[in-house]
Design brief:
It is a single chain. By secondary structure, the protein is an alpha/beta fold. The protein is 25% helix and 24% strand. It folds into three domains: 3-67, Beta Barrel (OB fold (Dihydrolipoamide Acetyltransferase, E2P)), CATH 2.40.50.140; 92-235, P-loop containing nucleotide triphosphate hydrolases (Rossmann fold, 3-Layer(aba) Sandwich), CATH 3.40.50; 249-314, Ribonucleotide Reductase Protein R1, domain 1 (Orthogonal Bundle), CATH 1.10.40.50. It contains nine helices and 13 strands.
Length: 316
């Protein structure tokens, strides 16, 4: 008889599945699970509701037989297998993107690249600028620029520091009754922030390398944690880079939300907002109505997609 459970941890080979009675089983999959014909490195994701059969009750092992329909999912190009995609999580209510202006420095365009993974499913994103205790005047000016840019297009921004407690309570309230994906570059302080919100979890943390200034991985696998009386959080491994051989030019254009709204006024329905005449996005850019920073990031992503060869794109 099949049991129903929630996938709470994924290692790529094994999946921990939790039942309604909070029993956990170490499960594997047999056969192939596909996502709309796309090749996946991990066909089952943390957050999935599944049917599984118990193999050994004493060993708490089982076999996943069926994945229930997902209300949404967050997927990225696999960093290790070029022609595969990797599921970060499924069935999430919101994504918490943690970045920091310094230590490590925020990569240009990283926020916009992450938003390309959530925007297709209208998943709300809160952008958390962490380690505010390290910000001097220059870093605060950069933060205020980002805050103005993203809040103008309805992405909430919060300034936090686990060290001083700045913004922790505001962030804490956002988790109430939601399943939240936590993501960010390595070393931005994801685990430290989660520990500040729920100290009982005691997630492992690791100092950033003084030599390189780069973050070091502390989270190896995606895992779901329950926040007592408040909701669930899905912690994910640090992201080094984001590429998009699974997207085409118009996919990108349609998922920069302010560009998509303006595109209704463009002369051409398939306008890419580059050299086309009577482009509403370019017109708005010229008068300062949209962010030049976002627009330049958009152009860079389009260039990367168009520079991919046939093999890069069609082996998906």
């Amino acid at each position: 008889m099949a049991e129903i459970g929630l996938v709470v941890k994924s290692t790529g080979l094994w999946y921990e599945v939790e039942t309604n009675t909070f029993d956990r089983y170490k499960c594997r999959i047999i056969g192939k699970f596909r996502l709309q014909g796309i090749k996946l490195t991990n066909p089952v994701a943390v957050g999935d509701k599944v049917d599984f059969e118990i193999e050994d009750n004493e060993e708490k092992s089982g076999i996943i037989k069926k994945i229930h329909s997902r209300k949404n999912y967050i997927v990225r190009q696999s960093p290790r297998k070029k022609h595969f995609l990797h599921l970060l999580a499924s069935n999430v209510d919101q994504a918490i993107l943690i970045v920091t202006i310094t230590f490590p420095n925020l990569k240009q365009g990283f926020i916009d690249r992450f938003l390309l993974m959530t925007e297709p499913y209208n998943i709300p994103v809160i952008i958390v600028f962490n380690k505010s205790d390290l910000y001097q005047e220059e870093e605060m000016n950069i933060y205020n620029t980002f805050k103005e840019c993203y809040e103008k297009i309805s992405y909430k921004c919060i300034l936090t520091s686990a060290l001083t407690g700045n913004g922790i309570e505001e962030l804490n309230q956002l988790f109430k009754d939601k399943t939240s994906l936590i993501a960010g570059q390595s070393g931005v302080g994801k685990s430290t922030l989660i520990n500040a919100i729920q100290p009982e979890l005691e997630l492992k943390t690791k100092e950033i390398s003084d030599y390189s200034g780069k973050g070091q991985h502390t989270t190896t696998f995606a895992e779901l944690y329950r926040i007592e009386n408040r909701g669930n959080i899905i912690d994910t491994p640090g992201i080094k880079g984001l590429s998009f051989n699974n997207l085409n030019v118009l996919d990108v254009a349609h998922n920069f939300r302010e560009f998509f709204e303006l595109s209704k006024e463009c002369k051409f329905s398939n306008c890419t907002h580059r050299n086309e005449p009577k482009c509403a996005v370019k017109n708005e850019l010229d008068v300062g109505g949209i962010s030049e920073m976002r627009y330049l990031n958009y152009l860079q992503i389009l260039d990367e997609i168009e520079s991919q060869n046939h093999w890069d794109i069609h082996e998906m």
